[in-house]
Amino acid sequence: MLFGDPTAGFGSSRSKHGLAAFEAVLCLIPHAMLSLSSLIFRRVPKERIVGRPVIWREFRAHNIIFATRSVVCSVVAWLSLYHNHAPAWRTMALYVSGSTCLVSNVAA
Fold first, then answer.
1. What do you get for the CA distance between the two ends of the chain, in Å?
2. Residue 80 neighbours by CB under 8 Å, 6+ apart
3. Which of 15, 70, 76, 101 has a beta carbon 3.0–4.6 Å from 96's, enabling a disulfide?
4. What are the pLDDT digits (tens) for 56-89?
């Protein structure tokens, strides 16, 4: 739960203080940074080493692709909610989320 909200901040377009529920979007940053932080390791095995908990190149790429997809879809859903699901924003969220999912599946 995010700040006592079971919808993780996406249940309402406005917080208690009349501001956008921006805290929910900020909580996506660690999610993206965690997968991107694997890029700091220069020498990563090309293939999986069975029996050892070591990340390999393909697994690292999958993690980055799918974490980025999740962040992009969550941000556009938040933008639609922030604009009270105005038709243009809702349509944009639908197309961006759908495109992001298709591209991530092709890239993976």
1. 30
2. 86, 89, 90, 92, 93
3. 76
4. 888 888 889 999 999 999 888 888 877 877 899 9
- The runs of H, that is alpha helices, within the chain are 22-26, 28-36, 57-82, 87-107
Rounded to whole angstroms, how far apart are CA atoms 60 and 44?
A: 9
- The dihedral built from the CA positions of residue 96, 25, 8 and 79, taken in this order, carries a sign that is negative
Q: Which residues, in sequence order, are bridge partners of residue 20?
A: 14
The first and second tokens of residue 75, run together, are 């941000």
| CA gap 35, 23 in Å, rounded | 20
